[in-house]
Amino acid sequence: MTPSLTSASVRPVEAMLPRPFRVIDHHQETSDTTTVILEPANGLGLDFAPGQFTMFYVFGIGEVPISIAGGHGATLIHTVRAVGAVTAAICALGVGDVVGIRGPYGTPWPLEQAEGRDLVIAAGGIGLAPLRAAFQYALENREHFGHVSLIYGTRSPAELLYEEELREWRSRFEVEVEVTVDRTAEGWHGDVGLVTNLLPRIVYDPDNTMALVCGPEIMMKVVARELGSRGVRPEDVYVSLERNMKCAIGFCGHCQYGPDFVCTDGPVVPYGRVRDRMRVAEV
Amino acid sequence: MTGRVVQRRDFGILFETLIENGYSLIGPTIRDQAIVYGEVTTVDELPIGWTDDQDAGTYRIRHRQDDALFGYVVGPHSWKKFLFPPESVLFRIGKVGDALTFSEPERPTQRRAFIGVRACELAAIAIQDNVFLGSGYVDRTYENNRDGTFTVAVNCAVAGGTCFCVSMATGPECTSGYDLVVTEVIDNERHEFVVAAGSTLGEQVLAALPGRTLEDQDRTRVAAIVAGTTANMGRSVDTTGIKEMLYASRESPRWAEVAEVCLACTNCTLVCPTCFCSTIEDGADLDGSAATRSRRWDSCFALDFSRLHGAPVRSSTRSRYRQWMTHKLAGWYDQFGSSGCVGCGRCITWCPVGIDITEELVALKANSEVVV
Amino acid sequence: MKLDTLLAGRHLLADLSANEIEFLESVASEVHFARGDVLFEEDAVADTFYILQEGTVGLQLTTPGEPPMVIQTLGSGDLLGVSWALPPYRWSWQATAVTDTALIAFDAEKVRQRCEVDGRLAHQILRLVAREAIRRLNAARTQLLDLYHTGDR
Q: Do B305 and A254 make contact, defined as CB atoms within 8 angstroms?
């Protein structure tokens, strides 16, 4: 399951049918968030592009959409926050447990279009999960891009995801990684404040930048607007939408946002397309 | 394609022929004071001599002066309940130790003949064909139900009180998507059926029906019937610029006004022949060795429909009504290349408080012009 | 010192004329603070403002019985200090160097005096300060929303 950029165009034939995957490792990131590493239970893996998601099924409980956080060779990585019955069950999975995975679904981050440009990756909270695969792609294909920056904001130091990886990324010279928290805690000597405060620190040419933004909708809005006030065009800012999903293949109607199906027209969309919708309540 | 004029006394042979060819028949029949679609085996089970009076929030059947077989329009049922059933099993999951297996159900081809499909309904079936078969992924349940369906369409000889198929360019004349099309001609001098084939299969069935060849006067009568129905539509709608107008009306005060009366009862989505929303249910057997995933109809009017992170995105009735109407009459164009509305009028008839989508359009348009 | 050699924060001065830049240069100097140094104290007279070049400065308030908590950090390219521009010219927060820092310091009193007689400069300075203050206000309001919490409100 090496991430590729073109796999998104291949549509699985039996799109509603999950395949069995086995948990081979899991790691608790924070008090309510766990990263689960899976491998196919019967040899049939899946190719994904960063930004896509799968439908993750736990036997007898149900199924939820989860962004793909990464994967290499035969592994699939998901980072899940326990907010309901299914996600709580996922966070409680043990090594050897078998689950159902179908996918990948949705539009990926436009990493091909971003070639030759500066890349600004802005993550808020668990929004770092779908951006992790994009950032790793940029690291592995560093020569394709100009300046590469990652800014990441979360609630508090205890809620940082991928702490060890963040430290490793921060130590690299060829990318810039800045992390901030909304509220500090004892022992934290890093930045405090909203993730938009980090924008002046990083280097990017507003005329030649692709920004990938993921986090709570308000965070995406304010980051997109801040980028806009610094000269980045709305069509060069991509956000990842989220809506109630049941089928993930454009049939059940639940994920509609205006005329867009978040599962097939998204979740990754250019900010310019949804900017007007985002300021109207209950769309 | 050929046509034939079949006399009333011979019309039952159509039913017999189809049954002999292995079809089970579904057609209009009276149940609980309404004309619905159910299994029929003989012509006698049709609502002979009945018609329907429809208006906003009103539906009554009453006797006609004659014994027409198809002298009414559409009732609360649409053909979607047979093609996109209210409940269906998607697959079963087996659990042995830690291992999971996923298996699809058997989907044998069902040979069914739909009798009495109106022009608006042909359009609705074509719309759902596009949704379930034509948009990239294929829905296996729908595909299976669609295969093996024989369609006997009927040209409406009366227009319903809430009909506006003319405005939506879906009728009243059936022009494609059928195996046979029937126009009932009934007056003091005759009771016969002009039957034309629309497919090779239709030709074969037509060949088994006794009747005389079509003459110019038959074509003239059919044209006159269609013209009469066209001129008597119960409602009308101006669809010029409708998509842009609805997109621009997201913050129109009209939505709050209709929300004052809308009960969010979901009747409109249940009776609408193109509404396709569904939900997925995962259930496990008690002994934990098997589970089933099934799908059932859902409605964007349901409060939980848009639940995200513990709360609905669309929690007000106003936002849900806006979602339904904007999707049906505007968003659908961007999604599927056509309107989602076929002008059948069911949502108007079956709304318990009589909300009329054609009136809402007029009001929204008026508001949108004021804002500019 | 020459302001066009600033490592960071040039955008803050983008709307100033050459004369105005020259004036600011005349009241500017390079300064360094080591980690842990206090740049200014809560409620002290605001007589210097800064543009951060390198390092991080944290804004905090002291509360009895609790260690001081940083509510916001500023970094390279940020304007440090907005309260110097309007009466009562006193700092609302304490600014502490979280890391070793390099800054450009400006004599706030001299700038205020010049603004009394130079209307255009006064206008530009207030616009600069207001823009940063609005940005901070919006960020702080968003921070209040506690965006990353779980679904149960």
A: yes
Phi and psi dihedrals of C19, rounded to 5? -65, -45
Paired with B113 in beta bridges are B25, B150
Pick from C21, C85, C73: nearest CA to C49 = C85
For chain B, give percent helix, strand, coil, nearest 5. 35, 25, 40
User: What's the gap in Å between the CA of B309 and the closest CA on chain C?
Assistant: 5
Return the biggest CA–CA distance within chain A: 53
Alpha-carbon distance values, B141 to B83, B219, C20 (Å): 8, 39, 74
Mutate which of A95, A99, A247, A251 to disrupt the B interface (most B C-beta within 10 Å)?
A251
Its pTM surpasses 0.90: yes
Whole-number Å distance between alpha carbons of B166 and B119 = 10
Instruction: Write out pLDDT tens, residues A187-205.
Output: 898 999 999 999 988 999 9
Residues A196-238 have pLDDT tens digits of: 999 988 999 999 999 999 999 999 999 999 999 999 999 999 9
* HEC profile of B127-143: HHHHHHHCCCCCCHHHH
C23-78 pLDDT, tens digit per residue, is 999 999 999 999 999 999 988 999 999 999 999 999 998 777 777 789 899 999 99
B295: contact with A, CB 8 A cutoff: yes
Residues from chain C contacting residue A218 (CB–CB below 8 Å): 142, 145, 147
What does the alpha-carbon distance between residue A249 and residue A262 come to, in Å, rounded to a whole number? Answer: 10
Closest-CA distance, A51 to chain C, in angstroms, reads 20
Measured CA to CA, the distance from residue B120 to residue B154 in angstroms comes to 10
The C-alpha torsion from B314 through B318 and B320 to B323, rounded to 10°, is: -110
Chain B residues bordering chain C (beta-carbon distance below 8 Å): 309-311
Torsion angles phi and psi, residue B151, rounded to 5: -110, 120
